[in-house]
Amino acid sequence: MREALASVRKQTAREAISQVVVSENSTNDESRAICGEFADLPIVYRQQTPPVPPLLHGQSILELVRSPLVASLHDDDWWAPEHLASALGVLNREAKCAAVFSSHFLTQGPQFPFQVSQKLWRVWASQKLGLSSAEIILDEVGVMLVCLFDATFHYSTLVGRIKPVRDAIFRVVAAGNAYDNDRTFPVFLSAHGSIAYLVQPDVFVRLHSGQDCLRPEYDDGRGWAIKSETTRWLLKTDPVNGAAATLRFNELAKMMTIQHLTALSHTIGEPLRTTLIQECGFNLVPSAIESKTKWLVKQVCPPIVLEVARQMLIRGGGRRHGQ
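Above: the chain's sequence. Below: its structure in token form.
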């Protein structure tokens, strides 16, 4: 949290910050002492006792916001100095824009290497295949399309208008889907206006063992199975925009090279990719096609032939690799 607050302090648009709400959703109040190190920030500290589920905690935090705009930052992530300024520039220019998200870096911490999240691919695939502008403006159909693919809009990159954000969080809580709320939240938010996505990464998202996608109960494809259930739920909840999203993607897919389409398909795990293809009609590249050559070899060659070939490769030191 110290790194998160330090990044708030370094914002170039710091004068626009009227509150920094720090909410501790546990009985441990060590965070209070850390807030004391940032006396120059307008921190409002509260402790949620007893602790509540994360979605209810998020809803209670929004009740403390007194500004017409709100930004979200998880305590294990941090912003680049220009993050707020870039988002405010879009919100001030686009009156019908409900919120701004941005691309982000993935890292294990400030002392580790970082990489750009592949989620930018999904936003790219929902538009006219161009990333030449600084931001991409998504309508309801575009947001639905991106969220059908998987979680793409990270909470720590959010800067939005408080009324749409409050309403979207309220609808998420009412829906009761805690695991994939980062997919349902943007869909609900887009009902209030367009969603902007900044192409330049300006947030650092920390990878750690406590994240949902890394929890043991979601290993062995279970996480992707739950994502399939959320995709079905989104299509059932909003069939009109769901059908329009499918149609839009299939039209855009015709403009993609097979390399681009395959690369995009690689960002979607199984069984969600199969769900999108078979149940939703998406023209993605099936996993079976990617391994078609290996499958064909196994069908044509008896096991004994494959074993002989393997032994020849081992004895040959790999020099005959590719035969």
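The radius of gyration is 23 Å.
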